[in-house]
Amino acid sequence: MLELFQRPFETCFGGGGGGSNDSLLWHVDLEPHASGEYSIAVVQANFRYWRTKDKFLPLPPQLSLEYTMVMVDLRLPVSLLNISFPSFIFISEEGKISEEVIMKAFNATEKEFLHLVKQTWITLPHIAAVGSCCLLGVISNNDIYVANLGDSRAVLGRKGAFRSQVNCAAAVVPERLSTDHNVGVEEIRKEVEALHPDDAHVVVHTRGVWRIKGIIQVSRSIGDVYLKKPEFDKNPLFQQFVCPVPLKRPVITTEPSIFTRKLTAEDLFVIFASDGLWDHLTDEAAVEIVFRNPRKGVAKRLVRAALEEAAKKKEMRYVDLKRIEKGTRRKFHDDITVIVIYLDHSQGSLNSRPKHEGHYISTPVDIFSLNADETDL
Q1: What is the pLDDT along the chain (377 residues), one digit of tens a residue?
Q2: Which SUPFAM superfamilies match (predicted)?
């Protein structure tokens, strides 16, 4: 059924990779933003009926405060495309960005999704089992706000001690700006178990990893209503078309972790990426790649490094991995989304820079690469 909704978007973004070196790759090499420059790359692995909503947004012009906003990995069925992340609504009301504004935006998004689940319940009961991680970054007035649900991750690269024969400290060091809400992390697993002392099976080890109720690895998300609202799980319609999951109370939440930090001249860039990247690259390796290479196409370079590691783990050549089609590709790596945000302090403070027109970029529903002349990937 969802395929019917997908076709118009495939038409809009093209019908295939053509002669591209990797037909599942989409990227923006380098563009300006309010605080510097950015690079984006996305590679698809799943046979997707989902929309990857990776956006790069400036503040609406009617407001005096200029900022940079990044979203990663908000994926919903294409049949629900009218869901939007309503941050601007609350920024307009408050006149500024804050942790409270961000929390309101997450809550409003969840509320809107729940409303649509209820609306489509009879025709699409599967929607109650749809969910997504979400990573949000906002840079405003020399402050950075990072909020996340799930296991997408933001890592800041900042200047370290200069590398030399005498001093072996790294020239760039990573600083993680988000929490991985994944029960594979012992701290998160204990957090979930502590909330459910009467449920010995709230987290179980199955199919090689820890999962909540044997189903899901993340402990926080947008959607996944059947794991938050027992009334959906108990509904006979849902049990018929999906599966029953015995719940005494919600087992995952929608409350994001929010991190706020003042930016300094030592802060060079931030990598926002879905878990597909971090499955194969450490924080240290990722910031080193960004630091040691030209800006243009740096997100694409990170994707390539992750894919090379994925191929190595399967004892195969990277060139052969690129030939594998979506769907089958998922056996080798997950979808990967990377956005690298450069912080150009040398051009002046982040809140005194001249205004720019801004960009609003969204990746295609399905990745049909427009980069047929690529040779380095």
Answers
A1: 223 223 222 322 333 333 346 667 788 899 888 778 999 998 877 765 444 444 444 444 333 345 677 777 665 544 443 445 555 556 556 667 889 888 988 898 899 889 988 888 788 888 888 888 989 998 888 899 999 999 999 999 999 875 555 555 678 999 999 999 999 999 999 999 999 999 888 999 998 999 999 989 999 999 999 899 877 766 676 666 666 677 778 999 999 999 999 999 999 999 999 989 999 999 999 999 999 999 999 999 999 999 898 888 888 888 878 777 777 777 777 888 899 999 986 544 444 444 444 555 555 555 433 443 444 45
A2: PP2C-like
With a CB cutoff of 8 Å and minimum separation 6, the contacts of 344 are 35, 36, 37
Maximum pairwise Cα distance, the chain: 69
Write down the pTM of the prediction: 0.81
Three state DSSP letters for 170-184? CCEEEEECCCCCECC
CA–CA gap between residue 377 and residue 295 (Å, rounded): 16
Beta strands across the sheet bearing 50-58:
50-58, 67-77, 134-140, 143-149, 257-262
Paired sense of beta strands 25-33 and 257-262, if any: unpaired
**Token pair of 283 as six digits:** 């924080």
